[in-house]
Amino acid sequence: MIKVKEIQASSIITKSNLPDADYVINPYVGCAHSCIYCYARFMKRFTGHTEEWGKFVDVKINAPDLIPVKTEKYKGKSIFLSSVTDPYLPLERKYQLTRKILERLIPLEPDLGVLTKSDLVARDIDLLKQFKNCEVGFTITTLDDNLRKEIEPFTSPVENRIKALEKVKEAGIKTYVFIGPILPFLTDWKKIILKTKHCSDFYMFEDLNIKGSIWSSVKKWLKEKHPELAEKYERVYFSKSDYWSKVKEEIKQFCEEQKVDYKIYFHYD
């Protein structure tokens, strides 16, 4: 059960710490996807929630009103939706915060970036097309929908995401696939590329980051669902393993063979 609360935010466009964005917008606090590998759970330190991460969402109901009607401040600057939530949570169907935010952003002429695990983004193609520079990405960690239900139970099915990716691409909007986190011995990133290269302009890759409380969540899942992999993960992460450096080289080689553009964002080094 997800606890939903409507809140008033004091600001909505914030300076970004991401390497490829000047500003970020997070229409919601928390996330309903319940991904076992979520890096954003650190946000709980700042939210005051006692609920487990993935079990609460605060809806910033005044978010669209916080975007200025007229300013040159964001013209040509990159704005990213979103860094610590998904702009297309299931609640977006009801609240339409992201849609209203997009409407307000169009006249400000930013370079827009969107990353989601939801096919709901296709609803807003009419608005996304109005940005001079816009790219829309879909996170895909696996093509196996049974595995998807284990690791990110409340996200859109993978096939739905790929269909939405095709629609966005057909609309003339730049697209990408974020393959991450790569789950050792489970994420078949080569198959993901081959399945989506017809509708993706480029790829981003990220390794599985086990910092903070992420490892305990991943370890619990492995013991329950993939006990045969528990020891292998221990070796990858807690011994002098060259696993990720080998994967990195494989990605480079494969992407060059397939003639696809790519960026690698690995934490291990």
TrEMBL record:
Statement: the UniProt record of this protein carries the keyword Cytoplasm: no
SMART domains in the cross-refs: Elp3
Key words of the record: Iron, Iron-sulfur, Metal-binding
CDD domains: Radical_SAM
Keyword flag Iron-sulfur: yes
Domain of life according to the entry: Bacteria
One Pfam family this sequence matches: Radical_SAM
Name of the protein in question: Elp3/MiaA/NifB-like radical SAM core domain-containing protein
UniProt source species: Candidatus Magasanikbacteria bacterium RIFOXYB1_FULL_40_15
Organism placement in taxonomy: Bacteria, Candidatus Magasanikiibacteriota
